[in-house]
Design brief:
Helices cover 11% and strands 40% of the residues. By secondary structure, the chain is mainly beta. The strands form ten sheets. Strands 1, 2, 3, 25, 26, 28 and 31 form a seven-stranded antiparallel beta sheet that branches. Strands 4, 5, 6, 7 and 8 form a five-stranded antiparallel beta sheet that branches. A hairpin with a 4-residue loop joins strand 9 and strand 10. It is elongated, with a radius of gyration of 31 Å. It starts with a helix and ends in a 7-residue tail after the last strand. The N terminus and C terminus are likely disordered.
Length: 589
């Protein structure tokens, strides 16, 4: 390595920006040639000198350029403000209709607690208040058929017009109710949470006569939402971040969906049309969002959501950054003009999208879909440092997820996948330790997806400990510890045994910490799922397929093949004359 560095010093410095300014400069990262030389040397020094060349399997792009559909983000007017002395009870819900959101407001007038309604137009921002009501409000709901707001007090059912928030009528309710009960209008019925906080009590909308009772199986209910004409959503803060889908016609629970936002904000949630929830907790959690269901979770449309046309992939919460790459060269002797090639981010995948880019050279794409920048360095004089800005891009980075249930896992693959099933001394698939470890976690009855997730979970349990040895898989399993390289190789080996295409991928990745922003060199495994492509398996943590906490500049490089890799898209140093060499031909399987 010292001789290599003496011949030529080449480094890429990645500096990341937000639109507001510089975040910070990356740590120094090794050249591709330095990385390969280091890995091969470490393997040799650890007693595995009989290893031949590293795995030379070329990467397949794997990430299809899906067309993304942007789901419209709501554009709400400025939120309402409470006046002096007003407050909103945390446990009382809100309702909505015809573009209005309505809260129950509490206030003290002459030391007496009174209740009235506050309406807010989500488009114009206009607010209105009723006069204080003589009775305590126990629930309210929007009746879309009659276009009126229904408010239940302790003993009456009141109707209001939303445009001017004036009372239209009052009707005596057959049974009194002083506590908050929550109410929705479903067809010709009013549906309330029962006094036992577990059942749903139904009343005829016109006569107010009791009609039927449903036992939900969910205790301590606090909120109910009309999802569509057949389904009611049930929620309690005791459930946490979960919503229960209940079908009254079948008197049974249909599904339970988790979500990823402050669950207590659902006290201030309301139905916005069919199959959409609006959360308007301006006054407590400060959370506002419009939620729709996608797969087994809810999507917050406020996070600028995109979904691919197949419905398999979703990405949201874009984070906009500028990245800049510099090339620095300090030769120890005169060097003729030479080419430098470096990996470029994917144009568009689940993780990111390049919005703008410029390069001091050309952009090339190999047969596997990987993109590279090609620049030409001028003649360089010994001892003189040369620096050039070679690439700049504005990138939108997304949080992303996959709906694995829509994928098409299969066991039959064409010849292009043969490269992902070749054994190698670093994997040693026939080693008894490897086979026994695999058999302990995988059974013949496991499905394709189950095998992937079990392999991923197993790797996460390997103790993170980097000692620089780059151990082969049998040693990692025996030692029960390793760095990202070793976690990754265990997963790739197990995927191969399971007849699932798996590959080793590495790149420089951006990560945030408490004190700085930096790039690090990191390895992950990837598994192939037809219909999705290569999904990342972060062996040091996270869930399978999740890109968090890492955001990748580029994914898809295989393991090193020494100081002169035969894989398209790599840079290595020619030790004989000190020039930068680029191998332009595509690698063969």
């Amino acid at each position: 390595m010292d001789q290599l560095r003496a011949s030529l010093y080449l480094s890429f410095v990645l500096i990341l920006f937000f639109s507001s300014g510089i975040l910070g400069q990356s740590d120094t990262i090794p050249t591709f040639g330095e990385r390969y030389e280091t890995e091969e040397s470490n393997i040799a020094s650890s007693g595995h000198k009989n290893l031949e060349k590293w795995d030379e399997r070329a990467p397949s792009s794997g990430y299809s350029n899906y067309e993304w559909k942007k789901l419209p983000s709501p554009n709400y007017a400025p939120p309402p403000k409470l006046e002096d002395g007003e407050s909103i009870n945390e446990f009382q819900g809100v309702t909505s209709g015809d573009g209005y959101v309505i809260w129950v407001v509490n206030a003290k007038i002459k030391n007496k607690l009174v209740h009235y309604l506050l309406s807010w137009n989500i488009n114009s921002g206009d607010t209105k208040r009723t006069q204080p009501l003589s009775e305590r409000i126990s629930s309210m709901a929007w009746d879309n058929a009659f276009k009126v707001l229904l408010v239940r007090t302790s003993s009456n059912l009141l109707t209001f017009s939303l445009k001017d928030l004036k009372q239209i009528s009052s009707k005596s309710f057959p049974n009194s109710r002083n506590d908050w009960t929550d109410m929705i209008v479903m067809g010709n019925e009013l549906v309330f949470i029962g006094q036992d906080k577990e059942t749903l009590e139904c009343y005829d909308k016109l006569t107010l006569a009791p009609t039927r009772v449903f036992k939900t199986g969910v205790t301590k209910l606090q909120r109910i939402f009309l999802w569509n004409e057949d389904t009611i959503l049930l929620w309690s803060s005791f459930l946490g971040a979960k919503i229960v889908f209940f079908i009254p016609s079948k008197n049974q629970v249909d599904d339970t969906i988790s979500f990823n936002f402050p669950f207590r904000s659902l006290f201030k949630a309301t139905t916005l049309g069919e199959e959409s929830l609006g959360v308007f907790d301006f006054f407590k959690t400060k959370y506002v969002g419009q939620l729709i269901k996608h797969g087994k979770t809810f999507i917050n449309l406020n996070n600028h959501v995109e979904i691919d046309q197949s419905g398999i992939g979703i990405r949201h919460s874009p984070k906009y950054q500028m990245i800049t790459a510099y090339a620095k060269v300090m030769p120890n002797k005169n060097i003729k003009s030479s080419k430098v090639v470096f990996a470029l981010p994917h144009k568009s995948n689940y993780a990111q999208e390049i919005l703008e880019e410029s390069i001091e050279g050309d952009i090339q794409t190999d047969s596997y879909g990987n993109r590279f920048g090609v620049i030409t360095l001028p003649d360089l004089d010994s001892g003189n440092e040369y620096e050039i800005e070679i690439y700049k891009a504005k990138i939108a980075r997304f949080r992303s997820s996959f709906d694995f249930l829509k994928a098409r896992p299969e066991q039959n693959f064409d010849k292009s996948f043969e490269r992902y099933f070749k054994d190698h001394p670093i994997y040693n698939l026939t080693n008894p330790i490897v086979k026994d470890s695999y058999d302990q976690i995988i059974s013949d009855d496991d499905t394709y997806l189950t095998k992937i997730f079990k392999i991923h979970e197993f790797a996460k349990k390997i103790k993170p400990l980097w000692d620089g040895k780059n151990e082969p898989v049998p040693n990692v399993l025996k030692n029960k510890h390793g760095g990202c390289n070793e976690h990754t190789r265990v997963q790739v080996a197990f995927l191969q045994i399971a007849n699932i295409p798996g590959r080793y991928a590495w790149n420089h990745i951006y990560r945030e910490s408490d004190d700085k922003d930096f790039t690090i060199d990191h390895a992950i495994a990837e598994a192939w799922i037809t219909g999705i492509g290569w999904i990342p398996l972060e062996g040091l943590g996270g869930r399978a397929g999740a890109l968090s906490p890492y955001l990748f500049f580029d994914v898809g490089f295989p393991e090193s093949s020494g100081t002169k890799p035969k894989v398209d898209g790599q840079i290595y140093l020619n030790q004989n004359n000190g020039s930068v060499v680029w191998r332009a031909s595509d690698a063969q399987p």
